[in-house]
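Module 6 notes. Inverse folding takes a fixed backbone as the condition and produces residue identities as the prediction. Think of it as a translation problem where the source language is geometry and the target language is the twenty amino acids. Below is one complete input and output pair. Work through it position by position during the lab.
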């Protein structure tokens, strides 16, 4: 087993926690990139500022690749890897993600960026957790919130890494295959890869403690994790582990907490909010990047790639489209049909499935000149779909149908049960899920957890996207760990 030597090396070599984007009087006089760990660890308030900085860094320009502007860029790229996102001309992400070049190339920078940034966030939350062991606990509630959120971030980042860089978890098996190193300390020593089973054990341990710590705490900032989000993460993890009874229970817990806190499923015209203002125009977002207009990330923005109206080359040359087959799973009365233009620029009937049709209208930038906007990382709709799917896969089709109906009528007011059960009902739910969560980073993970192949639709052009189908066991579902992280000779020679 090879040891991962220089993971995150150089990200905090100067003993710095990066907290750019945090607004406070204290930070007005001390540049955030120069704040020492000693200063950060001097009080709970300063540790909270550091935690807030990590949340702010979820949307950032530090990757060096415009299409990878923090987690929103990672979401977009994961969807490009699968079978529901298509475009026609612009080359951003084309070879790396649409064509899977980065998956199988251990020296590819588009691959390494995921590894580097997720472990950067892990490193910085581990520094915060270390600081909590030393700081004076002047406010137990604030201490619990900081620790609970830090554990959530650590679990979530490792969860993304193990889904990308390891074979899928298989329920009922021992899952001793190599996973990824689970970093629980802020250190630079090499560390062997934990098994996939061990990684998931540690993820769940962190989330269990987070749920306990965040219990009853009112988190008033949607930029931060809260108890409902922690349970939502537990539901995501259980779904991937095919632990369907618990996935349903955790999603239900998340929904109850969310709705008690005022969250509501979008209905009617709210569905056409464009998402850039989802935190103000609707009450569906549970955790989101709420980026103010004066904190632009320019062409690193999600909306510089995923909207249809912002004035960028990535949009002018390649508005993102949904798989025609996925679009046609919607009924004629499904309000989400307005999220795409089935005719595209060619203005031809939808039945012709022309290339360039089914263009995105789901994500709308605030204007042609403003790419800044909210990005929802967890929405109430996801939890409903997760609960419904998990119930059906656990053999509880009746309960699953009830949950799905409650959700589906908010999208399709004319919806009535088709009488499906078992696999047929699960497929119906999955069709709604791929439509609902299009562009939000779930499709690659969903196909991998369910061990399903990629089947791109008739509006994909193989000359542009490289392939139309990918077997469920093909090379590339497991990304190559970046060579820079396994090469002993690179230790102490890279500065990210």
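Target side of the pair, the amino acids:
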């Amino acid at each position: 087993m090879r040891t991962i030597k220089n993971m995150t090396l150089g990200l905090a070599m100067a003993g710095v926690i990066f907290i750019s984007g945090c607004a406070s009087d204290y930070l007005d006089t001390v540049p955030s990139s120069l704040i020492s760990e000693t200063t950060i660890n001097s009080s709970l308030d300063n540790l909270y500022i550091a935690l807030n900085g990590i949340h702010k860094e979820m949307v950032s320009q530090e990757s060096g690749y415009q299409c990878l502007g923090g987690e929103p860029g990672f979401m977009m790229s994961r969807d490009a890897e699968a079978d529901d996102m298509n475009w026609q001309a612009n080359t951003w992400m084309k070879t790396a993600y649409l064509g899977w070049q980065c998956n199988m190339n251990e020296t590819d920078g588009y691959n390494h960026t995921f590894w580097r940034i997720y472990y950067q966030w892990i490193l910085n939350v581990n520094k915060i957790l270390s600081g909590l062991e030393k700081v004076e606990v002047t406010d137990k509630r604030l201490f619990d919130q900081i620790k609970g959120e830090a554990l959530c971030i650590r679990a979530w980042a490792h969860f993304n890494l193990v889904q990308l860089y390891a074979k899928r978890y298989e329920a009922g098996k021992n899952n001793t295959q190599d996973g990824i190193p689970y970093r629980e300390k802020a250190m630079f020593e090499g560390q062997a890869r934990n098994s996939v089973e061990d990684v998931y054990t540690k993820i769940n341990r962190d989330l269990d403690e987070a749920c306990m710590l965040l219990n009853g705490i009112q988190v008033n900032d949607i930029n931060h994790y809260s108890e409902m989000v922690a349970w939502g993460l537990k539901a995501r993890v259980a779904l991937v582990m095919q632990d369907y009874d618990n996935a349903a229970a955790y999603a239900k817990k998340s929904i109850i907490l969310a709705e008690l806190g005022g969250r509501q499923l979008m209905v009617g015209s709210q569905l056409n909010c464009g998402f850039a203002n989802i935190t103000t125009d609707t009450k569906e977002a549970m955790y989101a990047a709420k980026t103010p207009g004066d904190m632009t990330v320019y062409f690193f923005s999600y909306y510089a790639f995923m909207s249809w109206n912002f004035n960028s080359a990535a949009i002018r040359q390649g508005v993102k489209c949904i798989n025609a087959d996925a679009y046609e799973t919607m009924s004629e009365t499904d309000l989400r049909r307005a999220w795409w233009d089935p005719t595209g620029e060619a203005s031809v009937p939808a039945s012709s499935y022309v290339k360039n049709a089914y263009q995105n209208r789901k994500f709308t930038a605030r204007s042609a000149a403003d790419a800044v906007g909210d990005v929802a990382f967890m929405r109430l709709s996801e939890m409903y779909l997760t609960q419904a799917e998990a119930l059906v896969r656990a053999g509880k089709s009746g309960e699953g149908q009830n949950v799905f109906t409650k959700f589906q009528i908010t999208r399709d007011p004319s919806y009535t049960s088709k009488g499906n059960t078992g696999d047929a009902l699960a497929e119906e739910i999955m069709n709604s899920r791929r439509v609902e969560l299009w562009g939000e980073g779930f499709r690659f993970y969903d196909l991998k957890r369910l061990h399903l192949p990629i089947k791109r639709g008739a509006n994909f052009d193989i000359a542009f996207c490289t392939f139309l189908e990918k077997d469920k066991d093909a090379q590339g579902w497991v990304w190559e760990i970046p060579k820079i992280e396994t090469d002993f000779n690179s230790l102490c020679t890279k500065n990210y």
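Reference fact for the lab report: The first strand starts at residue 3 and ends at 4.
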